[in-house]
């Protein structure tokens, strides 16, 4: 594996010799530091040692922001969810995520002990990557996001993908990714066989304490089931 092609990351280990990894993708215009502060709020004393990996998305021009370059997992050309995702950008980001998953395997943490998480744009890439996995991950976490390229991904979903537990959460007053879009994505994924644990909160495009608590409960169940 050519590590020179890997995205730069911020990493945090909760203990020596991590037994699990959590690969967490940030939203548009942020970077890998954005969700690093969530670690102490989320982690519980009875959990196994974890390695949190927060990659930085590449810098690219973003059409809806007047072509200004910023960290983005794909270009956004239209606010309409049906046309929002740049398919080539999504595909490239999925390949970069797969390279990071392969690096975790090389470091001793297989797919069965890796959780893939993402917020907003990062969540869309998480869903796209998860639907194409031939080897299931321990779980998928998609926050304040939507299913990109739904018709194409419905054709590409692997037989193994729906076995991955999926946590989805959304703000009821989200002005960036409307709640209705997240809810429709969850229903579409259920229709493809995914076991979706769906949560909605009275918030905008953000995370909240109740959401972190519910996510912690869900992650704890994944660790206990291993």
Automatic annotation (TrEMBL):
Residue spans crossing the bilayer: none
Top-level taxon in the UniProt lineage: Bacteria
Short name of any one Pfam family annotated for the protein: Abhydrolase_2
Domain Phospholipase/carboxylesterase/thioesterase: 21-217
Cited InterPro entries: AB_hydrolase_fold, LYPA1-2/EST-like, PLipase/COase/thioEstase
Coiled-coil ranges (or none): none
Any GO MF annotation of the entry: hydrolase activity
Record keywords: Hydrolase
Family as reported in the entry's similarity comment: Belongs to the AB hydrolase superfamily. AB hydrolase 2 family.
Protein name per Swiss-Prot or TrEMBL: Carboxylesterase
């Amino acid at each position: 594996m050519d590590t020179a092609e890997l995205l730069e990351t911020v990493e945090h280990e909760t203990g020596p010799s991590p037994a699990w990894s959590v690969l967490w993708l940030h939203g548009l215009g942020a970077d890998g530091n954005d969700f690093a502060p969530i670690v102490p709020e989320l982690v519980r004393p009875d959990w196994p040692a974890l390695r949190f990996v927060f990659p930085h998305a590449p810098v690219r021009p973003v059409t809806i922001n007047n072509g200004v370059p910023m960290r983005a997992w794909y270009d956004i050309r239209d606010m309409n969810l049906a046309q929002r995702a740049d398919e080539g950008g999504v595909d490239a980001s999925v390949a970069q995520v797969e390279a990071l998953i392969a690096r975790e395997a090389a470091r001793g943490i297989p797919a069965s002990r890796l959780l893939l998480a993402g917020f907003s744009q990062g969540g869309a890439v998480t869903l796209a990557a998860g639907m194409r996995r031939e080897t299931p991950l321990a779980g998928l976490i998609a926050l304040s996001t939507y299913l990109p390229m739904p018709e194409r991904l419905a054709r590409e979903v692997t037989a193994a993908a729906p076995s991955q537990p999926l946590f989805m959460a959304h703000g009821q007053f989200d002005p960036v990714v409307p709640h209705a879009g997240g809810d429709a994505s969850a229903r579409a994924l259920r229709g493809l066989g995914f076991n979706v644990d769906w949560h909605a909160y009275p918030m905008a495009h953000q995370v909240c304490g109740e959401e972190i608590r519910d996510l912690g409960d869900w992650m704890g169940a994944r660790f206990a089931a291993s």
